[in-house]
Amino acid sequence: MTSQVRAPRAPSTSKGAAKPAPGVKSAGRGRPSKGAGRDLKETILDAAEGLFARHGFHGVTIRQVAAEAGVDTALIHYYFGAKRELFDAVFLRRAEILNSARVLSMDAYEKSHPGAMTVEGVIEAFIEPLLRISQDGGQGWKSYFALVAQVNNTPAWGGETMARFFDPVVHRLVDTLKIVRPDAQDRDLYWSYQFLTGSMMLALSETGRIDSLSGGECHSSDLGAVRARLFAYCAAGFEAVIARAPRG
Amino acid sequence: MTSQVRAPRAPSTSKGAAKPAPGVKSAGRGRPSKGAGRDLKETILDAAEGLFARHGFHGVTIRQVAAEAGVDTALIHYYFGAKRELFDAVFLRRAEILNSARVLSMDAYEKSHPGAMTVEGVIEAFIEPLLRISQDGGQGWKSYFALVAQVNNTPAWGGETMARFFDPVVHRLVDTLKIVRPDAQDRDLYWSYQFLTGSMMLALSETGRIDSLSGGECHSSDLGAVRARLFAYCAAGFEAVIARAPRG
DNA sequence: TCTTCATTTCATCACTTGGTGAAAAAAGGC
DNA sequence: GCCTTTTTTCACCAAGTGATGAAATGAAGA
Lengths: 248, 248
What we know:
The structure is a homodimer. By secondary structure, the first copy, chain A, is an all-alpha fold. Chain A is built from ten helices and no strands. At the A-B interface, α6, α7, α8, α9 and α10 of A face α6, α7, α8, α9 and α10 of B. Chain A binds a DNA duplex through residues 2-3, 5-6, 9, 11-12, 20, 22-23, 25, 28-31, 40, 61-63, 71-75, 77-79, 82-83.
């Protein structure tokens, strides 16, 4: 009864760079709206990313995205299909970059500290890539982290997507921690990770709450301050939970 | 073609016997949908609370709330006004209960441990009331915690409300911690609290993520497991951050 | 009884939502 | 130039959206 989602004419395939260059848009005389010579598709994703991060999936309309990107709403459907597919595209775009950066970081740490790894070192290798990317990656990445934090706390919604893309790297963390603390119980590691990810995502989403709470002494945008404390905080937490070893 | 004269309501059919259960309100035989003879206003708040918690403010329509509560949409506007006011009413209903429970808990701890308070003890006094209420308070409270967690991570939206209602008790926590660790810097305490609240809210929202992540070994509904670890985890984190005392 | 008043229902409004088909415009190969 | 394919715009729809005025209802007083 509901109109089935018709896949838009797929613009060639999706893989690789064989895309026939959808026309360097604003170069010639297409739309004069957006200045940069970037692909329109990326422009749409950027607009959607920022809006979704601020207002959530349901808080954003296709028309808002279109207005922000300076395109027609039909063009968004042409490229991405339904609204939910647009959201997924936003989510996917940076997920793989994130995952490979984290795996690389943990690989490097493991290799550079043979037989001498510490809990704090492992945790730093797990978190640091995100802090670095957020600091160096520009506004797009900051929006993305806010988006992930939001999805993380709205399980009924993107929970499955979360799991599909981020569980592997979490298992990698747990496996490495088990090398460092072979006697630790899985339960304790998983719960400790749950605590860690809550802290980490809230810090990365830079909600600004700490700014007013601290009367201006702390700033949520100060990721250096996060770096200076979060690793030690989480590592001590892990150690305490492992040491206590409750049979819960 | 739009506005034609509204005919006075047609006398309809025979008003004889077929009138279906007029809404007698509070006492006796209200709505058959909700079992208890509670006020309709509370029924509406309950419905709205559950839906807002699952789908967020924009993901819920007045009509959905009305259907869930078994009332007419106009009745919701009659009692609460605009949609946003309904949301605020949901948020407010339990906020004060929460705050007084926490203040009471910290008062009790402070009085019962004169000169012998510990960081972990203070943190337990701060968090434990929430765990207890969530365990004993029924589904309504669980929805409420999920709602708060969501608002906490969507700053552009309810950030101001969050601050107005929950900042005082946080300042109380910080003040008490300064008694226990007089040499601790404010910066460190605020950042540590930020990490704590991220962990705590994620645990309280019971997203179910840990269930699949751990392959069924942990359950997000197992607040006993949280209690057995979270206090120690956070306390160790606080101590580590204080001890490190970075000048960030 | 008759009147009053808070509550509840009904019908509807003005507008927005996601989504679509077809035409128009570029881009490109020949 | 001509013809084909991809990209972009335009007009529009069916189904909702939040919200409201007014009528209907029922309990409580007078």
